[in-house]
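User: I'm putting together a small comparison set for a docking exercise, and I want a reference complex before I start. The sequence is below, and the ligand is guanosine-5'-monophosphate. Could you produce the 3D structure with the ligand included, as structure tokens?
Assistant: Of course. I'll restate your input first, then give the structure tokens for the complex.
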Amino acid sequence: MPYDNNNIFAKILEKSLFTEIIQENEFTIAFKDIAPQAPIHILIIPKGKYIKYDDFLDKASQKEVYSFFMLINQLVKDYNLEDSGYRLITNAGKNANQEVPHLHFHLLAGQNLGKM
Ligand code: 5GP
């Protein structure tokens, strides 16, 4: 399946759709989910065009992959989540009901999130 240039996160990246960016590095951005499922619900996406996790790991450079996970770690520190805890989720493809076909991790925190 080819990358869909019209997906909503592609529009955020090309700035045709405004979203406040809360963290950024060379290869990655983070912004708040429009429909938060927890007091803290942040989406982290690579700037490159990757559809889902396996596509990213197969095609991205080591620098892009490293930058991606380091940005998540920076958010954990910025929001002081090391002790209280947090959940990281990525939905990939059909059975996970991935809604936006651009890789994203959800960072959820700010309350007890229950069991998976
Ligand atoms: P998925 O189901 O693909 O893992 O998650 C997609 C997420 O993107 C959902 O949690 C949804 O609320 C969020 N979302 C969809 N459209 C927008 C948007 O235009 N802006 C932002 N900030 N989040 C969005």
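Residues 8, 19, 31-35, 43, 91, 97-100 surround guanosine-5'-monophosphate (CB under 6 Å). The beta strands are 21-25, 28-32, 40-46, 87-89, 105-109.
User: Thanks, that's exactly what I needed.
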